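Before going further, it is useful to explain how the protein records used in this thesis are read. An example of such a record is reproduced below.

***
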Amino acid sequence: MKTFITIFILALSTNAFAQITQIPDPVFEQALIDLGIDSDGIVNGQVLTSDVETVISLNLNHKGIDDITGIEDFAALEILDVTGNYLLVLDVSNNLQLKELYCSSDSAGFNMPVSSLDLTNNTNLEILYGENLIFLESLDAKNGNNGILNITLPCEFEGEPCQLTELDCVKVDDELAANNNEPPYNGWYLAANFVYSEDCILGVSENNSSTYSIHPNPAKNELFITAQNTAGNLKVKIFNIEGKLLSTQTLEVANKTSIDVSSLTSGIYFLNIEDENGITIIKKFVKE
């Protein structure tokens, strides 16, 4: 009897002190259950850390996840695919074994609103691939070893190339080698008008988005477009965040022109502005 009680107490103690990883997004946790990772099989906002700390590859492609909090405890993770999820934050700073990161927006729209990627702790990273990261403003690839062999951040909209207009500087270990297209930087491609720098001081460069400015943003009824150093007409298309085309119009270039947005419902939209040379940029605006 004493032996049974001792075993029972030991079992309770082991369970009581088991490490827990919080998973606040129920969709993320359900994905872990479906993948056979969350051993209790219940969506309860947590998983055993022992369930996740040995996972090497995690495919969360198009799962409808908003928040991947908890990913920091995937200590052995080498491959992560979060393509097609609506992530405001993509923090992989604790995933020190990470070798491959895939984080594209959905092909139907720009649904990956990540504004920054910090890879400074990911010294084992070899591949970063993300399509249509139109919100990306900051990319820090300065991780101390120049070991990222392939960074590919393309942009394509309606079958036409576009640019990541918010990204004007990429932080690297060796800006001279990067700007001279030396290895490993010759294996990188970013659809942006940017410079490589070791510090990315604000204002280090101007990209093509400076050719156009839009205001007010947010807008209520009218959105003004100011064009500089541009001749000919502009073809302007408005898309919603799912990538659905809402309107197309051709505008005569002047110092300032405007479009009517009063019929749009409140939300985030994109202006696809194309000049007569076929050069296209995309500007984000908010309708109040």
In short: The chain has two domains: 19-205, 209-287. Residues 19-205 form a domain with the Leucine-rich repeat, LRR (right-handed beta-alpha superhelix) fold (CATH 3.80.10.10).
